[in-house]
Amino acid sequence: MTAIQDDLSSDSPSHPEEMKSVFDLRVGKHITLQGSARTTPAGVISTAIAVAAMTFAVGYLISSVNRRRW
């Protein structure tokens, strides 16, 4: 992204309820990680539903394998 595009994207949120997060992580003297995230409440709920569905599916597969062995 150019500097102009970066300035425009930081000034105007794409969603009125958008949540932003920025972090800096230092590991020792030479390693620095910087990150940022943007999300909406709908994105948080969708992620939670997807994680729950995958957890239930993996739990079902594990219980199915355990039943097959006996």
UniProtKB/TrEMBL annotation:
Keywords: Membrane, Transmembrane, Transmembrane helix. The chain crosses the membrane at residues 42-62. The keyword Transmembrane helix applies. This is Transmembrane protein. It comes from Rhizobium metallidurans. The lineage of its organism: Bacteria, Pseudomonadati, Pseudomonadota, Alphaproteobacteria, Hyphomicrobiales.
